[in-house]
Amino acid sequence: MDPRLRVDQPGELIAALPAMLGFVPERSFVVAVLCRPSPGAAAAIEAVVRFDLDAVSDPRHREQFTECVESICAREQATGVLAVLVEDRPIPAHAAALLDALGATGIGVRGAWSVPAIAAGARYRSLFDPAAGGRVPDPASSPVALAHVLDGKQIRRSRRELTAVLRPDRPLGAQVHPRIGPAVARYRDGLSAATRMGRATPYQRGALEWVLWQIADAASGAPRAARELARLAATLRDRSVRDAMYGLALGDHAEAAEQLWTQLARATSGTDRAEAAALLGFSAYVRGDGPFAGVALTAAVEADADHPMAVLLETSLQSGLRPERLRSLAHCGHQIAADLGVDLGPIAR
């Protein structure tokens, strides 16, 4: 958390949530996990987790909610949590049940507030003392928001805006889908012929270099043609080429790669969409954009519930695993590319 943000100022905390989450939350239950960096130091926010209010309000999902928060608190050795209820409807009775559920696990709720919307001037109230409250300062002027903008991070107006990034492009998909089968056949026939001649590695190296060229060209903002996206989907079905792509998440070409994975995910379905969305989700995950990583990984699992990497990454994200713990996967990608004779460049982030 930015050192200029004091956790004992509820209005500043609430104003900072859009920057912390990457979007302005609506009808949400947000939990900020508190840790003490060193003995005697002031408490700092180590993690922020957002839950859909309608979902966690369902008693059937209550246990899953508390287990998630409890797992993160245990991993971070939390000293407590702060909770913010963002709700434009009358405050529901089950708000207290959520706080009680957290308390029942031994998690100390150090403060809890409700606010109808996170906007300048919105009035927030304490859930422990309805008479206590105040006004939310301008979220755009939050020190955390300013730090994010200077760092080039985008704060979206709502989670809907976030999910729209991966909304399927039906017209483009209709062009890409019939081309994938022939593209897969061509790739497999070429690899089989190369293998018979003892040239499988050069063939895969050429395929990997072609994907890297597509990524470099995508950096210009030009959308890929349907035939290129079909060939890309076919090429990523080669496990070696696909796994090498995870190495790009820590390099200078990460942003361009994310643009290409987004185009491919929107133009495909099933396992092909899951592959692209998992690559996108991993890249967002390791750069610290948990909300977008969550959207991408959810899209991947919805496209293919049995996709191993998508399931692993989504589980890691939901359990609060730190991004740096996943850097080894990117290093493996670099090694796989090197084994094929391709240098992915320096690890830059």
UniProtKB/TrEMBL annotation:
Pfam families: DUF4192 (PF13830). This is DUF4192 domain-containing protein. InterPro entries: DUF4192. The lineage of its organism: Bacteria, Bacillati, Actinomycetota, Actinomycetes, Mycobacteriales.
